[in-house]
Structure formats: structure tokens, C-alpha cells
Amino acid sequence: MIYELSDTSLVEGLFAGWEETLIYSCLQKVMGKIYVTDRTTPKSAMAYVGCFAFLAGAPDKELVEGKPNGFAIVVPQNEEWEKLIEECFPKAKKITRYAIKKDTKFDVEKLKADVAKLPEGYEISPINSEVYDLCLQDAQTQDFVSSFDSKEAYLELGRGMAIIKDGRVVSGASSYTRYKEGIEIEVDTVMEERRKGLASIACAALILVCLEEGLYPSWDAMTMNSVHLSEKLGYEFDHEYTAYEVL
């Protein structure tokens, strides 16, 4: 049987050395949940937040099969977990993701210059109560806020910058998740507004907000295009890792 773990300190050792801020969010109980099959002496655990599930410790078939319903990006700690995921979900799509270093020293003046490149006809705004509602109006911008349980939770914990044109959010950078020391960045631009530099502008603005508040703006990439965008902003590529898209 699978249980939600209340005392997350019991599994800190299982995730030790895994530099992934979504795991921090769960362990710190800021958002997300930790699932186990043994509530007293867990030997394996799943950290679940947004649509991501991170599997650590001794491979446990019951835990893999008990992931929350719906689409998930499942990240194994090692090859043993990989084999178990493939056994439990033979139709899962194996993908490569790209980890970005977590110790970036940003060039603040360059970031400010990037923000100043906002084209005429566009405005940039923090994701406040009104802009939060605008984000929900488009499937491409919903993920800026959808990992949080409510608008109130986002406005308290989340940070985001949206680029607006004609009353519509067309690009933005926001906190996919939040942990005590920072955020994990989610960035996107609606299809017809791409290749105008809007994503870079929104990200630069969000990074500046984070730096002002003493928060770290963590970045993890799904594609090499995302890696290249991060590098333009001052980040450095770290390593590739395996994940699975599971329905």
C-alpha cells in the first residue's frame, strides 16, 4: 500500500546528492508530496510535484505502479529504477532531459539590457491576480501557474513575469514550483509570437526579481533549445539525464 509521508526527514537520505529543486519542494513541504510504501522505515520514496515524479532508494514496483493518475514525467535515480519503470509501463516514452548547474553568477546589467529590448506594442508585468487569470485563458500559458493548488498559493509563493499583447499573455517566465531558497523556472511563448526574443526578456525580468528577493532561479531543460536559451542568460549546462513520459 502507498502512503503520503508526513515526516519527510525520514527519506532525506534516499534523495541525498540529487540536486533537483522539485525534490527540495517536496522534502521541505513547500509544495508537492512524498509517497512511500513503509511509513516508519521507508527504503524507497517518490517525490511528486506538478507532473514530475522522482524515484529514489531501493526499487519498489508498488511505488512505481502507484504513481498519481494522469500524465507524469517519471525520473529514476538509477538504472535499476529505469528497468522497473519500463517493466511497469512498457509504453512509456524514454526521453533525455538536461540539468543546468545550480550556482550561476548572473550579469545583472546584461539582464537589465535584455529586459529593455521589449518591442513596442508589448508590456511586461508581474503575474499578479489579474494576470494570473489571463494565464489560465490559454493552454500554452496555464503551466505558468497550474502547479500551485490555488491562486492564493501562487500569489504567496510563486513569482512570474508575463509579456502581454492586446490583453493576452503571449510569453512569460514563472515559477513552475517553489522551494524555500528559490524557484524552478517555467518559460513559454505562444506559437505565433516566437522568434521575437520574448522568452529571453521574460526570463531576464524574472531572474532579476529573484535576485532582488534573494531567491535562486533554478533552470532544468527539456530540449537543447532550452539549454541554449539558459546559456544566453548566464547559466551553464551540467549533464544529461533519463526520464520517462508515462500516461
Q: Any descriptors?
A:
5-stranded mixed beta sheet; alpha+beta; 247 residues
Task: Describe what this molecule looks like in 3D.
This protein is an alpha+beta fold. 28% of the residues lie in helices and 31% in strands. The protein is built from 8 helices and 13 strands. The strands form 2 sheets. The chain has an 8-stranded mixed beta sheet, sandwiched between helices. Helix 4 packs across helix 7. The mean pLDDT is 97.
Rg from alpha-carbon coordinates? 18 Å
Counted by DSSP, the helix tally is 8
Kindly report how far apart the N and C termini lie. 21 Å
The beta-strand count equals 13
What is the topology, as strand order, of the major beta sheet? 1-2-3-4-5-13-6-12
The helix content, as a percent range, equals 25-40%
Question: On the 0-100 scale, what is the average pLDDT?
Answer: 97
Poorly predicted sequence stretches spanning 5 or more consecutive residues: none
- Summing up helix and strand content along with how strands pair, one would put the structural category as alpha+beta
Helix-strand topology string? EHEEEHEHEHEHHEEEHEEHE
Let me know the largest β-sheet.
Answer: 8 strands, mixed
Instruction: Work out the strand percent.
Output: 25-35%
Which shape, going by the Cα principal axes?
elongated
